[in-house]
Design a protein that fits this description.
The chain has one domain. The protein is built from seven helices and no strands. By secondary structure, the chain is mainly α.
Length: about 110
């Protein structure tokens, strides 16, 4: 009985760690923007995110046009934004960053 309990607890802890790392994060998106996009785009994160409202960012994501919206805000970064690594690893975090700091959110990023 004790072994089953230990296995169950270990499984729950393991799954909780995996699920938290798979979720997008606006703070991570802000760091990624600063590191990967700020210099290329020539804009601060505040200007990039505030170019659209939260609804605009959400609709673009839902309709599969998020990449195009990001490229329209950062044409110089089109190669980066279209790269497989960006699409698989960074896009969801950048989206969360842009959504959380959109022009109607009332939040202002520190980048």
């Amino acid at each position: 009985m004790i072994n089953i309990t230990k296995i169950a607890i270990a499984t729950v802890i393991g799954l909780s760690l995996l699920s938290s790392s798979a979720m997008a994060d606006s703070a991570k998106g802000q760091k990624l923007y600063i590191k990967k996009m700020k210099e290329t785009c020539g804009k601060t994160g505040a200007v990039f995110a505030a170019a659209h409202s939260q609804m605009d960012w959400e609709v673009a994501k839902d309709e599969g046009k998020l990449t195009e919206m990001m490229i329209s805000e950062c044409p110089a970064g089109a190669d980066l934004i279209n790269s497989d690594k960006f699409q698989s690893k960074f896009k969801s975090h950048i989206y969360d960053f842009a959504y959380d700091f959109a022009n109607d959110s009332g939040n202002v990023p520190s980048c």
